Amino acid sequence: MDSELIITSPPRSSPNILVTGTPGTGKTTTSELIALAAGLEKVTVGELVKERSLHDGYNEEFDTYWLNEDKIVDEMEDMLAGGGMCVDFHTCGMFPERWFDLVVVLRADTDKIYDRLEKRGYKQNKVQENIECEIMQVVLEEAQESYQPEIVMELASNTVEQMEANVEKVAAFVEEFRRTHTQ
């Protein structure tokens, strides 16, 4: 008799939210505002990678770390188990589907991304690669392939007004989740 191991998450009274998108779409700002508005704890995966050495070295050409996905997932597993987290990262396919109740994919016009990344001092090859990723909808497609369609929310993030509206939408989701998941 074959038995299949099924990993289940305990019921959560507060959701886990993933805010993802191409660099320059406003993930950090939006996730900080969501965490404040909805009373969630914010996790910036890029900071965890640096602080806890969850990488396999540095890529000089693109001025970034070679991610060790296994180390990242292992490090975050307990963090997300209880819910109430807002995770900020530029990719999403490596995370287990069971971790998130909502996946927010931020999108921005390429001229906005260009300006934002240039202000950060990104190398030109890195700016170009990220603009191409946004044009090709790489992060959106990854989210759509990795998660159930009903939990993926694509939002425009070009202006302050759009960012504020996005925060309101996600905060309303969190409030409704808590209302319907209170034990």
Reported for the largest beta sheet, the result is: 5 strands, parallel
**Head-to-tail CA distance between termini:** 36 Å
Report the principal-axis shape.
globular
* Tally of helical segments: 7
What does this entry look like structurally?
With 183 residues, the protein is α/β, with parallel strands linked by helices. It is 46% helix and 18% strand. The chain is built from seven helices and seven strands, in the order E-H-E-H-E-E-H-E-E-H-H-H-E-H. It has helices at 27-38, 45-51, 69-81, 110-119, 124-135, 138-146, 160-180, and strands at 17-21, 41-44, 55-59, 64-67, 85-88, 102-107, 152-156. The strands form two sheets. It has a five-stranded parallel β-sheet with strand order 2-5-1-6-7, with helices on both faces. Strand 3 (55-59) and strand 4 (64-67) form a beta hairpin. The longest helix is centred in the C-terminal third of the chain and has 21 residues, at 160-180. The protein starts with 16 loop residues before the first strand and ends with a helix. 34% of the residues are buried.
